Amino acid sequence: MIRCSDGTTYHGDILVGADGAYSGVRQALYKCLDKAGTLPPSDLDELNKGYICMVGTTGPLDPEKYPGVDNADANVNQILGKNSLYTWSAFSVPGNRICWGAVLQLSTVKEASEHKFRNSEWRSETNETMIKEVRGFLIPFGDNTLGNLIDATPQENISKVFLEDKLFKTWNHGRTVLIGDACHKLLPSAGLGAVTAMQDAVVLANYLYEMKGLAFSDISATLDQFKDERYSKVKVQYETSISSARLVYGQSYFDRFMRTIVFNWLPESVLLKGGFKGVEFRPQASFIPQIPVRGSGPVLPQRPSQRYLDEQAKLDEK
């Protein structure tokens, strides 16, 4: 239960907020904690908005006009604009279609703050200005441009969103806990957004399985332990997603300089080590048989469940 100072209550044995970057559960929880004077001020700040992204998927295309679209293997291309704040991508998917995207780096905080609407308020008719700016961008599928892909994409299949990020400090209080985008919104550049949410869910399930009792103190302590374990790992993943975004989307002078250094001068071993950062942690549900580690990448060890081991020992005795 969340009980606010104004008398408002939110009931539930354990309330899990996993309802996205604009989580209603988080907003209710933070409202209570803010009134009590226990919420870190930074948790009330808006999400960072460093980029705007427009994406879409075309209908089936003619392989003669778009050579390579019918290849068995995906044809993946990331293009960096010259003297531009845009980067764009185009990659083939089954059905002779192309997924495409255009990312605009917002050059200043002031520019980002001028965009007052949230992701949920984007509509297809608001795309026209950005479409005009990117129509002439060349793509490596024959003699075509991003405009050709846009024209081959149904309007309702075009979406435009902020690429937002923020790592909140407060994840839990009492019987309430936040997971996924509700407490850490990552940029999509490193592919860690959904990964961290699933890791949260598995780790939280493991802690609930190990919980000693159902008293308020047991639940509160368990959720504290969950946050303590996950926060440091998510912080690394969060920083990795920001660095990756600057390498893939960044168009400032510093971003271009770093991209040149990273992709032209760093040894491959260093690049591989950076690529593994954030994905070494692969938690499994501790209350079922574990899947053996496969592959060549590093994997952080997982603490075994003493409760599960004890239960299995009892079964063996029978």
Automatic annotation (TrEMBL):
Keywords attached to this entry = FAD, Flavoprotein, Oxidoreductase
Sorted alphabetically, which Gene3D superfamilies does this protein's record hold? FAD/NAD(P)-binding domain
Question: Which SUPFAM superfamilies does the protein's record reference?
Answer: FAD/NAD(P)-binding domain
What GO molecular function annotations does the UniProt record carry, in alphabetical order? FAD binding; monooxygenase activity
Pfam families documented for this protein: FAD_binding_3
Ranges where the FAD-binding domain occurs: 110-230
> Could you tell me which PANTHER family the record lists for this protein?
FAD-BINDING DOMAIN-CONTAINING PROTEIN-RELATED (PTHR47356:SF2), FAD-DEPENDENT MONOOXYGENASE ASQG-RELATED (PTHR47356)
Q: Which family does it belong to?
A: Belongs to the paxM FAD-dependent monooxygenase family.
Q: What is this protein called?
A: FAD-binding domain-containing protein
Q: Which organism is it from?
A: Mortierella hygrophila
* Lineage of origin: Eukaryota, Fungi, Fungi incertae sedis, Mucoromycota, Mortierellomycotina
